[in-house]
Backbone:
């Protein structure tokens, strides 16, 4: 791709109103931008040439001035166990990201990446092993969802979770704008709270979210109930300790009515005692949060282990005893390394 192409504004990174304004400024009839927006977000057009009811002259005018992000599907793996699909997608600069689609009957959820790699280096997660390469653009985030939405073998895409590679709130502007496109009625038209932003507890991003009006769900990757344990498992906690993160979540709940899900990954001997289950129950009660318990998924060269089934059920039972909604999120797509924490930016080097 030429350098010139890079400089052209990417229509996939724009809200429908912004595309309307661009077209208006060019003196084009308003129904033309309506058509182009539909092609992009409702039909999944990958280039202006795909837009067959748009006159050729306008298609070339668009191609001259604008671009449309077009991620290359480098590899698709389908889990034999549960039909989870993992896409390895190539970006225009050669970087790669992974997107996972989880089918649920006729519906499906796409799990999307927001960064190439991750800066936070949690020792239990594969995504941060090589550090952060760069943020994804709005178009690169949106196109992952388009790839999933318009894939012939994928049913109705009803939910999007920003739980792939990277920390969405550390790439706030792009994440928020992509979310607006997902929710926009001329965009993906997803229902309110059908987009979930997951965070490791990046406080500056939580504070920005409190200033914003995004009708999203928030998922907090908590994984520990005290600072000493959380510091060991999630280095980001040293900078943004647990009490400040929980306070920010509480503020979001009260000021923006942002519902909270707590993600709590269980690692044997690290965070899976009954005392921790009781402390977690207290946190959930005060934040009206439900919990997803995620048994740790194996990643290569790691010293961690998942607790036994019995221990996992005991932990869950303790939460339920306290009246907390607690679900065990069974790992999906583990046979293709598509489960939580297994996504990497360099899958081509791994065996399929
Ligand atoms: N950075 C954000 C978005 C990533 S979401 C966040 O931390 O929330 C990915 C989720 O999978 C997080 O909850 C993460 O802590 C969890 N995870 C990472 N490695 C895992 C592993 N090996 N097994 C189970 N869950 C893991």
Residues:
């Amino acid at each position: 791709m030429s350098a010139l192409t890079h400089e052209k504004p990417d229509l996939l990174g724009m809200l429908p109103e912004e595309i309307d304004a661009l077209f208006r400024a060019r003196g084009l009839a308003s129904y033309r931008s309506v058509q182009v927006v539909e092609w992009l977000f409702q039909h999944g057009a990958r280039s202006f040439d795909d837009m067959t009811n748009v006159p050729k002259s306008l298609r070339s005018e668009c191609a001259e001035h604008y671009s449309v992000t077009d991620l290359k599907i480098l590899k698709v793996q389908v889990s034999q166990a549960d039909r989870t699909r993992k896409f390895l997608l190539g970006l225009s600069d050669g970087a790669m990201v992974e997107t996972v689609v989880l089918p649920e009957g006729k519906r499906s959820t796409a799990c999307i990446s927001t960064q190439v790699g991750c800066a936070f280096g949690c020792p239990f997660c594969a995504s941060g092993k090589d550090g952060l390469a760069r943020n994804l653009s709005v178009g690169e985030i949106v196109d992952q969802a388009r790839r999933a939405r318009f894939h012939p073998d994928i049913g109705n895409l009803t939910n999007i979770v920003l739980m792939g590679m990277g920390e969405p709130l550390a790439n706030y502007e792009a994440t928020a704008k992509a979310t607006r496109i997902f929710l926009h009625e001329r965009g993906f038209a997803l229902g309110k709270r059908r987009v979930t932003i997951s965070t490791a507890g990046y406080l500056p991003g939580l504070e920005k979210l409190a200033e914003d009006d995004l009708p999203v769900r928030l998922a907090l990757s908590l994984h520990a109930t005290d600072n000493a344990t959380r510091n060991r498992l999630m280095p980001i906690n040293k900078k943004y300790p647990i009490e400040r993160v929980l306070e920010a979540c509480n503020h979001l709940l009260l000021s923006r009515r942002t519902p909270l899900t707590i993600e709590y990954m269980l690692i044997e001997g690290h965070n899976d005692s009954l005392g921790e289950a009781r402390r977690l129950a207290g946190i959930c009660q005060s934040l009206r949060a439900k919990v997803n318990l995620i048994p740790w998924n194996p990643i290569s060269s790691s010293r961690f282990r998942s607790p036994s089934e019995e221990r996992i059920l005991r932990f869950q039972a303790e939460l339920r005893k306290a009246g907390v909604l607690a679900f065990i999120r069974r790992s999906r797509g583990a046979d293709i390394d598509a489960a939580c924490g297994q996504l990497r930016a360099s899958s081509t080097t791994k065996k399929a």
The domain at 72-336 is CATH 3.20.20.70 (TIM Barrel).
